[in-house]
Design a protein that fits this description.
The chain has one domain. About 70% of the residues lie in helices and about 5% in strands. It has a two-stranded antiparallel ribbon with strand order 1-2. The longest helix has 29 residues.
């Protein structure tokens, strides 16, 4: 039966003779070579993959570590460097969070700025409390490793109920942090960490409020990692465009930096 589509009927390749001619135009070797070719993978079709996302994340962390090393060395001479990194990192964090399309240059610049901040603040606290940075780094790696292992094994997953609780807790944590910073700026407290430095009594033991708040923040950061892993998993399964691997990388970098800062603050508070 002839095709009624002019685009097909006018082309001999779609006619009965065209089919024979097309098959004869290819030799047996050509057909075998085409058959032996590997099927197009996600990389070939420009789709998001775990490998590509890991590469992007690794690149971001490599840039962060290099910037942190530079800031660590330069902070005693250029103390404003890590403050600049904190400001730029905060601004780019907001930009990348609300940007509809991921931008590799902006995300890598964010990673570098966070490196300047992390390296500088780590040097300041390690000069006062030697060894505290090693403790914070190891604790951060443990939390990230355990969270990844639990997620990979399927023992922990992101759920609507847990995410709602997470969002409510995040709002409460953010409100406390803003109030605490405001009190520190306007003289409401003379403690190094503001309200976090206050001691409270629990079962006859005195403990810094900041340690309790910090432990809550660590739990929030761990669940934030679960959300990051969940986004990457869904992105790969739903065959999102490859560029969204940068979104996954950005989320992990931001969460790990937050987790590290909380760990650093907890260990500093235990030394006060």
């Amino acid at each position: 039966m002839a095709s009624s589509n002019p685009a097909f009927s006018r082309n001999e390749a779609f006619g009965p003779r065209g089919a024979v001619a097309s098959s004869q135009a290819l030799s047996d070797n050509d057909l075998q070579s085409m058959y032996n070719r590997p099927s197009a993978g996600a990389q070939d079709t420009e789709r998001m993959t775990y490998e590509d996302t890991i590469t992007k994340t690794g690149l971001g962390f490599a840039l962060l570590v290099v910037a942190a090393m530079i800031s660590w060395v330069a902070t005693p001479v250029l103390p404003f460097l890590f403050i600049l990194g904190a400001i730029v990192g905060f601004v780019l964090g907001l930009v990348n969070t609300f940007k509809k399309e991921p931008s590799a240059p902006l995300i890598l610049t964010f990673a570098a700025a966070q490196g300047l901040f992390v390296g500088g603040i780590s040097r300041v606290f390690d000069d006062i409390y030697p060894g505290v940075v090693v403790q914070a780094v190891l604790a951060t790696l443990v939390v990230v490793g355990v969270t990844l292992a639990l997620f990979k094994s399927g023992k922990i997953r992101a759920s609507k109920k847990a995410t709602k609780i997470f969002l409510v807790a995040m709002i409460g944590y953010a409100a406390f942090s803003l109030i605490n910073v405001g009190m520190m700026i306007f003289g409401g407290t003379d403690q190094a960490f503001g309200l976090r430095s206050q001691s409270i009594s629990i079962l006859g033991f005195d403990i810094k409020l900041g340690i309790l708040i910090g432990l809550l923040a660590v739990l929030l950061a761990a669940y934030s990692l679960v959300l990051d892993f969940d986004f990457i998993q869904k992105g790969v399964n739903n065959r999102l465009p490859r560029k969204y691997g940068w979104t996954g990388a950005f989320g992990i970098i931001m969460t790990v930096v937050w987790l590290y800062v909380e760990m650093l603050r907890i260990f500093v508070l235990t030394r006060e």
